[in-house]
Each structure stands twice: as C-alpha cells, then as structure tokens.
C-alpha cells in the first residue's frame, strides 16, 4: 500500500513542528522529515504533546534533495495556484481529496512537502515535485497554518486502500526526466521553450502514476528514437 511521509522544508518555528508531530499521531502517520529545522526545544515538545516519540524519531536533513531521495512520488503543497495554463510550475493542482483518488489502490512511498511558513516552496523546489497540491480555501485568505494544512491532507489520505499497483521508484523516474531533458537538447528543441516543455512533460508523467516497467518502456522509446536520428544524420553525410 501507499505509505505517507511528511517533509517540512526549513520550518521557522519549533511550535509548528511540534503541532505537526501531534497531528501526524492523530492520523497514524509516523514518518516525519525535517529539512534545516530550528532546534528542537521545550516549546516544540510542549506543542507535540503526546507525540514526543514521533518528534524525537524525525529524520533531520540538510537539503531538500536528501529528503526526497527515496520518494516514489513527491507532492509539493502550495497556497498559490497557477492562474493560466502557461504557469506550469504550479499547475495542474490537485486537492487532498483528488490525491486520495490517485493513490488509492497503489503501492509505494509518497512524500508530502510543506514549505516555509513565510514563503512556502520556491518555484525551483516545486519544479522538483511530481505533483502539485492545493487545499481549496478562501481566495481572500488562502494561507493556512502549516499544522492545519498537514491535518487536512492526512485526514483525506488516512484510509487509502491497499493495492499491488507498484509506483515507479525515484531513481528510475529521475533517470527518465534527465533522459527527456537530454533528448530535447538533441532534437534540437527551441532553447527558449526547452525548460518549460521539460517541466510540462514532467507534470504529465507525474500525474500518470507510472510503474517501473512503464518508465523503462519510455526510456527504450527515447533510445530507439535517438538511434534513428543518429543513423539518419549519418546517412545524409
């Protein structure tokens, strides 16, 4: 079945970390990763209440890359949705309920990434995510307290149905994304469109819930296409 990990990227306040740990205990989620957090102090423990053990067992990472290295699917959360189809970094955005429909009956590791309390996740960090998720809130005040946001996501995802549909692992998906990027360079693709197109393809594939075999098939198609292009160029000489 799908296992859920909560990643807090550079949280600012120990009290919020403790509150997130408490919420995770409420919904049976015990995998917490902290990236460059403030020191765990008495305030943090007080807000954690009965979740001290979960708090003390949290994994501490120095970089975002370290935190997501073994995540089969990376879900980046944001309060700011893209306003047009050209804003690929923040689109398409899924609600917590829609995420449940995507992951129900699947098998793998899903990381929910929550950004800094004051400025969230950067565009670069969001571009590293497979899927973007937004909680539908009032447009007049969309930014939620981080522990409240975590609670809503975990509430929706707490009773996912077990399944044997295995999601592709992070390593092979990253190889595919790198291969696509290299392929666009080789075509050659218009330089001013390359990065946006590569991100758009990543978003498409991120929503596709690829299996390992599907990833290998796509890479095989790319390799055969590259070989055909090379042979065609050589025959023209």
TrEMBL record:
GO biological process terms held by the UniProt record: tRNA nucleoside ribose methylation
GO cellular component entries: cytosol
Extract one GO molecular function annotation from the record: RNA binding
Output the SUPFAM superfamilies linked to this UniProt entry.
alpha/beta knot (SSF75217)
> What Pfam families does UniProt report for this protein, alphabetically?
SpoU_methylase
> Which segment of the chain is annotated as a signal peptide?
none
Q: Which Gene3D superfamilies match?
A: 1.10.8.590, 3.40.1280.10
Q: Which InterPro entries match?
A: Alpha/beta_knot_MTases, RNA_MeTrfase_TrmJ/LasT, SpoU_MeTrfase, tRNA_m1G_MTases_N
Give start and end of each tRNA/rRNA methyltransferase SpoU type domain: 4-155
Q: Which family does it belong to?
A: Belongs to the class IV-like SAM-binding methyltransferase superfamily. RNA methyltransferase TrmH family.
User: Which PANTHER family does its entry note?
Assistant: TRNA (CYTIDINE_URIDINE-2'-O-)-METHYLTRANSFERASE TRMJ (PTHR42786:SF2), TRNA/RRNA METHYLTRANSFERASE (PTHR42786)
**What is the name of this protein?**
RNA methyltransferase, TrmH family, group 1
Organism classification: Archaea, Methanobacteriati, Methanobacteriota, Stenosarchaea group, Methanomicrobia
């Amino acid at each position: 079945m799908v296992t859920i990990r909560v990643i807090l990227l550079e949280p600012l306040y120990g009290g919020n970390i403790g509150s997130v740990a408490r919420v995770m205990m409420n919904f049976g989620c015990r995998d917490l990763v902290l990236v460059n957090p403030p020191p765990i102090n008495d305030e943090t423990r007080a807000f954690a209440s009965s979740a001290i053990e979960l708090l003390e067992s949290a994994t501490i990472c120095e970089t975002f890359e370290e935190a997501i290295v073994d995540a089969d699917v990376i879900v980046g959360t944001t309060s700011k949705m893209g306003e047009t189809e050209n804003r690929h970094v923040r689109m398409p955005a899924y609600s917590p309920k829609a995420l449940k429909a995507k992951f129900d009956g699947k098998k793998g590791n899903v990381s929910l990434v929550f950004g800094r309390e004051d400025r969230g996740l950067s565009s670069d960090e969001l571009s590293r995510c497979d899927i973007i998720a937004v909680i539908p809130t009032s447009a007049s005040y969309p930014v939620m307290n981080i522990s409240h946001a975590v609670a809503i996501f975990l509430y929706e995802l707490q009773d996912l149905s077990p399944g044997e549909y295995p999601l592709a692992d992070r390593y092979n998906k990253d190889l595919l994304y790198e291969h696509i990027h290299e392929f666009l360079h080789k075509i050659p693709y218009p330089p001013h469109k390359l990065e946006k197109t590569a991100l758009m393809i990543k978003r498409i594939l991120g929503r596709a819930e690829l299996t390992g075999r599907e990833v290998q098939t796509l890479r095989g198609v790319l390799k055969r296409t590259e070989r055909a292009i090379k042979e065609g160029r050589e025959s023209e000489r």
